[in-house]
Amino acid sequence: MVDIHSHILPGLDDGAQTIDDTLAMLQIAAENGTTDIVATPHANSSYVYQEQVVEQLIQEVASRAGSTIRIHRGCDFHLNFDNLSSALEHPAQFTVNSGRYLMVELPDMASLPVMRTVLGRLLAVRVVPVITHPERNGPLCSNLSELQTWIRDGCLLQVTAQSFFGRFGSTAQRVAESLMNSGSVHFVASDAHDCLDRAPNLAPAYHRVVQNWGQETADLLFYDHPTAVIMDEPIFAPAPKPPKKTSRFSFWK
Questions:
Q1: What is the pLDDT of residues 241-252, one digit of tens each?
Q2: What pTM did the predictor assign?
Q3: CATH topology classification for 2-230
Q4: Which of 173, 175, 184 is nearest to 225 (CA)?
């Protein structure tokens, strides 16, 4: 499996704090079937993203970890004015392996029409926004049909593995399942922050996806599509299916 969202680099954000934390997280990932992992430290008002520092830490960690797992550079890009200005001018600074894919975290109180306009500006400079954990964003959970519009525009969606098991609450779990049912999910990633509560273990989620949505879907979300991201190759994803409005899932508007 390929994990495109993790906070494994030491001391850069609220993820791993020491090199020992990092190495332990990498061991967990490798033991549970992850061959490649993208280090995506936060870029937001609390944490400054420094590309060269990230590169240096990846090299240091890789030399310590050996052949256990391959580490790639990315960024957990919080969508705000300053970040957007920087990304429009120097997109490769933030994208995964300096390619086309950008891991985008939306504000918790996002105006969806404004967000669509902003995402369109990224798409216009040939950056592909990967919307991270939409199932954990309040405004999006109340209007998932907006996400389908964004997907048709060219955006992609990444769901957090632990959302399938209720780690982020029942609403996030139901929304993740609803997005899966509509064929709107393109990646499942760990968003790992530590070794215990939010560990980089994709195996349980992989098996859940196989059980509920089939082997082919699981392989797409955990290997084929994430591999395309780290290799900077195009992803040809089908349009989402029209949502089924049921009493269980009342999120579609």
A1: 876 654 344 454
A2: 0.94
A3: TIM Barrel (3.20.20)
A4: 184
